[in-house]
Amino acid sequence: MLELSGVTAGYGETQVLHGVDLVVREGQFHAILGRNGAGKTTTLKTIMGLVPAKGGEIRFAGDSIAGREPYRIATLGIAYVPETRDVFGALTVEENLHLAARIGVGRAGGWSIEKVLAIFPNLAERMDNGGNQLSGGEQQMLSIGRALLMNPSLMILDEPTEGLAPIIVRQIFDKLMELKQAGLTLLLVEQNFHFALNLADEVSVFGRGQCIWTGTPDALRMDEDLHKRWIGV
Length: 233
Description:
alpha/beta
């Protein structure tokens, strides 16, 4: 569904990605792991057009998307849940959801506000609250819910457990597992090693702006040297 070949990118004169190769297969949950500064978030932003690719190729469902504007990439069927969540604080939960639902109208997927509230019942109790009145966990649920309402073919999530209490992390895990079982293709960047490996079908390890290894979660669990060298602190 998504393929990156030799992608380079960065910020100003600082190059962060040094030829990233990555394949995300349709219907799979693909996790990216690596230390801070490995290029994980920059890779996601480059896919979405938020950071321009300086070289290489990015293809989604067979079409080249490198160089397209972020809103055009989103309308192709890629939903992005950023680490910062980026809910509209001045709008209510209901208004946040309605904005996203307008974008997803007519796309295959079947997600509606009612269905999102069924998977995130906490939001149903907060519909009249502003986005800036939500807890971190509720903001994360709202951010994922908005992404689902776009009825995407691919959902990209950046550090969805960052700063959340363990009980909320467990709730997010359960919801992502439901989405996986429903057949949605997911690409996840995550620092929580066990969270990612217990969800993923395939894992890529990033280091120094490159994808240095790809394989199964079980293979990564057994490779202690790879874990210590590129993931462990």
